[in-house]
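Reviewers of the previous submission asked for a worked example of the structure-prediction workflow described in the proposal, so we include one complete record here. The input consisted solely of the amino acid sequence. No template or homolog information was supplied to the procedure at any stage.
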Amino acid sequence: MRLELNILDVTNVRFGAETGVSGGVLSVNRDQLERLLLQDNRISRVDIGLANPGDKCRIARVVDVIEPRAKAKGSGEDFPGAVGGHGSAGSGTTCVLRGGAVVVSEHWTAAGNRDPLGDFIDTWGPGADAGAYGKTCNVSILPHPARNATPAEYRVALKLAALKTAAYLARFGLDLRPDATEVYDLPYAQRTSGLPAIAYIFQVLTNQFTPLAGDPVLYGDNIERIVPTILHPNEIFDGALIAPWDSRFMETYTIQNHPIAKELHRNHGKTLNFAGVVIANAPNNVSEFERAATIAANLTKWTLGADGVVLTKIGGGAPELTMARMAQRCEELGMKTALAFLHMGIDTTDTSLKPATIFNAPEIDAMVSMGAPVTDMTVPAPDIVLGIPGGLQIDGEVKKGLRQIKGAFSQIGSSKLMAVRY
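From that input alone, the workflow returned the following structure tokens.
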């Protein structure tokens, strides 16, 4: 399976009479994009805004971030099963607007003590330095729900609106000469003798929370009851897999540019043989932990032929236990494991508590901490707020949890922050 990504660098985004990419500038025809999104009758209107690095802008209530990508003619469907028709992702040619991002916000009215800011992106100041999306050229969309749309229907419409926008923008780069090309061609059958075969168990969804019906997570549908399943890594890079609703520290953008899968791919045939990817859910009870762990370990050992396994999680406590149990089963079958994860098994309102794992398994002796999302940050007041109807201002500087800055923490290793003990 060979995937070619044709990269166009984007350094600025602006509104224009025609949508297109030229000289690093992404121009967006606001009316044309609005008409496209309003074809969904679950949306009554859509606010569209732009934010470039350095703008004193805050994008509030961020649900997801997507990198603009579109398939070349004859190469497959854009986000198959979700935006495009059914078909396989991971091969052919895909146009990527690198440096651009589609940011989708949720329209809701604050109730009780719910923070009206939600997860946010700053494109200037300390928030931009901390998060992954403060340096991207952002197309912000805020779809408003139609009066007869249920909350679940509206949230599915949000995800689809973001994917449609991402594909719409990237299509205008399909006929342009790319600034760079990335090729992902992983012939599993060709393994270098003497190198260990390493698989990756990628936890995608947690059943701690009720999954969103109709959420286009895998090839356009929900994966609430999926058993561990093998995917080619190219499928992950190429739009087959979308961040689920309420994914907690994992955006579709990071899946499209999955740092662990890309690093394993980069080292294939050099320091290791990349054996493949198993995606999995995190169940919420012991019997299903055991079932999922057994299937995942068997797939990595007997189907992928792995000698070692990298594992990550999605969510908090139950996913951590699932990840640990999968690692134990892999170790029992003779595969060495390495775990990389955020520490969520602590009270995030009490910063005096120290991060800790919530399992104790002596055979699991290689773990990478990706931090604990407990630190606060003071961010200055913006000049412009997107993602809130009417551009509601957040007066003065505010102190927020660093976990609220989209992209500051990552379940799969794409964050920029590092803690150093002197």
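The chain has two domains: 2-181+376-404, 189-369. We consider this example representative of the routine output the project will generate in years two and three.
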